[in-house]
Amino acid sequence: MLDWESGRVGAGVNPGRPVSWAVGKGHTIPASGISLSSMCRHATFNYSLPFRRNILIFTLMNFSSRLIEEAVNAFAGLPGIGKKTALRLVLHLSRQQPEVVEQFTEAIASMRRHIRECERCHNISDSTLCTICSDTRRDQSLICVVEGIRDVMAIEDTGQYRGLYHILGGVISPIEGVGPAELNIDSLAQRLQGGEVKEVIMAISPTIEGDTTIFYISKKLGGMGVKISTIARGISFGGELEYADELTLGRSIVARVPYDRGGGQ
User: Fold this and answer.
1) Domain extents for the chain?
2) Long-range contacts of 227-234 (CB under 8 A, 24+ apart)
3) Cβ partners under 8 Å of residue 111, min gap 6
4) Is the pLDDT score of 16 beyond 60?
5) Buried b vs exposed e over 234-263: b needs ≥16 C-beta within 10 Å?
6) What is the pLDDT of residues 148-160, one digit of tens each?
7) How does pLDDT run across 130-141, given as a tens digit for each residue?
């Protein structure tokens, strides 16, 4: 039996099968001479069970191979990958031909060895300049400022923007200890000194930290003769007004646009 306070267990578990336990403070469960610390090595903790407090779900995985166990632990270290998903991936790879697995691991290792940061916009790149900065067909007078790399990918997927980008690497957040010095703001100002850039678009998430970052950058770039704009904010297409929050609805009214009978606005 498992005593919550002592962390010791007694008899009753078949060690050959994965077992799940729901453990609450003051409860006991059948087990088989295992310490709580040993159980926690491969435990899955679930705090989302309704109507109960201090609940842990233990899922024990008994590996017959140390190599499999180490591979599962490696995959489980990736974001969004749990132990069960990691085990499924590892077992899949174990059934593949050796050359297929070697190609997979070499692709990951090569990416980590050779990936670099674009020296101009701070995007991920294979060379000194990323493919966007080196594309002469793009509008060199437009720079879209974003928080991170995934924002660039999201905007590119729209197919509506053909200018350049600048990745800040985050937003100003005093609570998290992130100030202007930790972001790529100075390099943005340097890019504007040539006079070729005419407009800077702030495509930053509409949060308190995001608005603080936009305000700081707009003040810093204020005397450089560049137009500073932000992406439109308002009610999404298909949304209903009664479900919109007050801030979004208020901004939509303040930032209203003339109605065009032909195009809808």
Assistant:
1) 1-62, 138-231
2) 227/198, 227/199, 227/200, 228/199, 228/200, 228/202, 229/199, 229/200, 229/201, 229/202, 230/201, 230/202, 230/203, 230/204, 231/201, 231/202, 231/203, 233/206
3) none
4) no
5) beeeeeeeeebeeeeeebbeeeeeeeeeee
6) 999 999 999 989 9
7) 999 999 999 999
As a whole number of angstroms, the distance between CA 214 and CA 217 comes to 5
What is the C-alpha to C-alpha distance for residues 73 and 86, in angstroms, rounded to an integer? Answer: 8
Query: By the 8 A CB rule, do 143 and 163 touch?
Result: yes
Instruction: Provide the residue type at 6 as one letter.
Output: S
Strands 124-125 and 142-146: unpaired
- In the chain, DSSP finds a helix count (H) and a strand count (E) of 8, 8
At residue 10, the pLDDT reads 41
User: What is the amino acid identity at position 131?
Assistant: T
What would the pLDDT profile of 40-88 be if each residue is shown by its tens digit? 444 444 444 444 444 444 455 677 899 999 999 999 999 999 999 999 9
First to last CA, the chain: 69
Q: Name the 3-class secondary structure at 175.
A: helix
- Whole-model pTM? 0.68
- Scanning the structure block, which residue is given the tokens 């050779």? 114
Task: Name the H helices within the chain.
Answer: 36-40, 66-76, 83-94, 98-114, 149-158, 186-191, 208-220, 246-254
At a CB cut-off of 8 Å and minimum separation 6, what does 133 contact? 118, 120, 121, 123, 164
Nearest Cα residue to 233 out of 213, 257, 215, 199: 257
CATH, domain range 138-231: 3.40.1360.10
Beta bridge partners of residue 178, listed in sequence order: 173
